[in-house]
UniProtKB/TrEMBL annotation:
<dbReference type="InterPro" id="IPR029154">
    <property type="entry name" value="HIBADH-like_NADP-bd"/>
</dbReference>
<protein>
    <submittedName>
        <fullName>NAD(P)-dependent oxidoreductase</fullName>
    </submittedName>
</protein>
<dbReference type="Pfam" id="PF03446">
    <property type="entry name" value="NAD_binding_2"/>
</dbReference>
<feature type="domain" description="3-hydroxyisobutyrate dehydrogenase-like NAD-binding">
    <location>
        <begin position="167"/>
        <end position="281"/>
    </location>
</feature>
<dbReference type="InterPro" id="IPR051265">
    <property type="entry name" value="HIBADH-related_NP60_sf"/>
</dbReference>
<feature type="domain" description="6-phosphogluconate dehydrogenase NADP-binding">
    <location>
        <begin position="3"/>
        <end position="161"/>
    </location>
</feature>
<dbReference type="InterPro" id="IPR013328">
    <property type="entry name" value="6PGD_dom2"/>
</dbReference>
<dbReference type="GO" id="GO:0016491">
    <property type="term" value="F:oxidoreductase activity"/>
</dbReference>
<keyword id="KW-0520">NAD</keyword>
<dbReference type="InterPro" id="IPR015815">
    <property type="entry name" value="HIBADH-related"/>
</dbReference>
<dbReference type="InterPro" id="IPR006115">
    <property type="entry name" value="6PGDH_NADP-bd"/>
</dbReference>
<dbReference type="GO" id="GO:0050661">
    <property type="term" value="F:NADP binding"/>
</dbReference>
<dbReference type="InterPro" id="IPR036291">
    <property type="entry name" value="NAD(P)-bd_dom_sf"/>
</dbReference>
<dbReference type="GO" id="GO:0051287">
    <property type="term" value="F:NAD binding"/>
</dbReference>
<dbReference type="InterPro" id="IPR008927">
    <property type="entry name" value="6-PGluconate_DH-like_C_sf"/>
</dbReference>
<dbReference type="Pfam" id="PF14833">
    <property type="entry name" value="NAD_binding_11"/>
</dbReference>
<keyword id="KW-0560">Oxidoreductase</keyword>
Length: 292
């Protein structure tokens, strides 16, 4: 069975490696062609010069692009997936707005293809180990090829219903996660300003509902680690949540304020860092303000 992977960021690149390692024939495409060529050579997979050619060569096309604009581009650009989608499965693993997912589903289905939403919960290590959690929505029953593909990358597949319910669920999970981390990013500088050791704070929250949050994120917030999920992508996902909520006239001021914090960190050079590092951004800013 063959899979085309479109989008070779952290997650897409890991997906190509995982599929190759478990015996799939893999073809890759990235809008930065040099990046796709390098990965293809490194991993030993095929390379396509356009997303349409990539789709044409595969049983399943997995989309793992960064945002709404990128998804529209790889599907609708000249030589895009829309031109080669007939009788093929397109699995969108990207996190995008619900409106764009609906739009792309109609393009694929009008072209004779089958569109599946399958955003995932997990990061690079979970991709490589096949331990993602996939949230799945589709207007049709999943094909055997899609089932086989998902079983290779996800330890759990949760069927949510029709499109765009899987995307809405993923946005809700990310929104809650990003807001909680943003709150901690203000808690920690507050403690530091008053000279309170973070270890005392950790000790105090033990046994409470706060313990797993502080335990999971404190070190990631104040130290630099390889990014599991970038600050700039957190800002993008919060924007998608806000736009998707606005469709139903839901006002989201807390999410909007949180998004501004991630955008602020991105603008000031922290966009490529792990998203809990918005706390480090604030701490570093405070240190700079102390200097004459």
């Amino acid at each position: 069975m063959s899979v085309c992977v479109v989008g070779l960021g952290l997650m897409g690149s890991a997906l190509a490696r995982r599929l190759k390692n478990v015996g799939f024939d893999v073809v890759v495409f990235n809008r930065s062609l040099d990046k796709a060529k390098m990965l293809a050579k490194e991993v030993g997979v095929g390379f396509a010069e356009s997303p349409g050619k990539c789709c044409k060569e595969a049983d399943v096309t997995a989309l793992f692009v960064a945002d709404d604009e990128a998804l529209i581009d790889v599907v609708l650009m000249p030589g895009g997936i829309a031109e080669e989608v007939r009788n093929r499965d397109v699995v969108n693993m990207s996190t995008v707005s619900t409106a764009i997912s609906l739009r792309i589903s109609r393009v694929v289905e009008n072209g004779g293809g089958r569109y599946v939403e399958a955003p995932v919960w997990g990061s690079v290590s979970e991709v490589l180990e096949g331990k993602l959690i996939a949230m799945v929505a589709s207007s049709k029953e999943l094909s055997e090829n899609v089932k086989r593909f998902l079983s290779a990358v996800a330890q759990r597949t949760i069927i949510v219903g029709e499109i765009p319910k899987a995307m809405a669920l993923k946005l809700a999970l990310n929104q809650l996660n990003m807001v909680v981390v943003a709150i901690l990013s203000e808690t920690l500088p507050f403690l530091k300003l008053y000279g309170i050791d973070f270890k005392i704070f950790e000790e105090l929250v033990k046994g409470s509902w706060m313990e797993p949050i502080v335990s999971r994120y404190l070190k990631r917030a104040i130290e630099e680690h390889p990014p599991r999920f970038k600050v700039e992508l957190a800002a993008k996902d919060l924007q998608c949540f806000i736009e998707s909520a606005r469709i139903h006239k839901l006002n989201t001021p807390i999410t909007a304020a949180t998004m501004q914090r991630y955008l602020e960190a991105t603008i000031n050079g922290y966009g490529e860092k792990d998203y809990p590092n918005i706390a480090k951004y604030i701490l570093d800013t405070l240190e700079k303000l102390k200097k004459p």
